[in-house]
Amino acid sequence: MTAAVQTAPETGSKTTWKLDPTHTIVEFSAKHLMITTVKGRIADIEGTIYADENDVRNSSVEVTLNAASIDTRTEQRDNHLRSGDFLHVEQFPVIKFRSTRIEGDKQEFKLTGDLTIRDVTRAITLNVTFEGQTKDPWGGERIGFSAAGKIDRRDFGLTWNQLLETGGVAVGNEIKIAVEVEAIKAA
User: Fold this and answer.
1) Tens of pLDDT, residues 73-113
2) What 8-state DSSP symbol labels residue 156?
3) Is residue 27 a contact partner of residue 148, using CB atoms and an 8 Å limit?
4) Which 3 state secondary structure label does DSSP give 31?
5) What's the whole-model pTM score?
6) How far is 77 from 66, CA to CA, in rounded Å?
7) Alpha helices for the chain (secondary structure H)
8) CATH of domain 15-185
9) Distance between CA 94 and CA 87 in Å, rounded?
10) How many Cα atoms sit within 13 Å of 154 on the Cβ side?
11) Which of 7, 68, 145, 153 could form a disulfide with 89 if both were Cys (CB 3.0 to 4.6 A apart)?
12) 37-71: per-residue pLDDT in tens?
């Protein structure tokens, strides 16, 4: 991408928000045997939003996901996804996202950034909806967003598959991503 990566604010012009990992979820889904969808999540997440309240285009996002925290509710599948056939978490323990461009307004925007999986970085775009802002019962301030997008797993070196006797493959190449974010205003 040609847009410059935004970094942490040097002045008071941006508000810093820390992702609340207990109220933030990154989910993914893929076709299995060409007939059904398998869903999973990555549970261990940390990240920061640097929000420009006057112009969302000047905001930025940085997120790190612990690849070993992948969870599809099936231990055997999770272990396979952690193996060298897929995420290879021993060699590549984190998945990273860093925004490069934001287009739209505060309510709905496209968030483009560099996603790094297995040391392969590719640009992706997420469609984001601002869900609101509120005070919490403990005196803090919180914001929420929903986001969705998709990637082709082969673009990140995730090429393992198995041909089916009836035609087709065991694992679909398109991975849908769904994100629910709650972030807390940093002091």
Assistant:
1) 999 999 999 999 999 999 999 999 999 999 999 999 999 99
2) G
3) no
4) strand
5) 0.88
6) 17
7) 75-82
8) 2.40.128.110
9) 9
10) 6
11) 68
12) 999 999 899 999 999 988 999 999 999 999 999 99
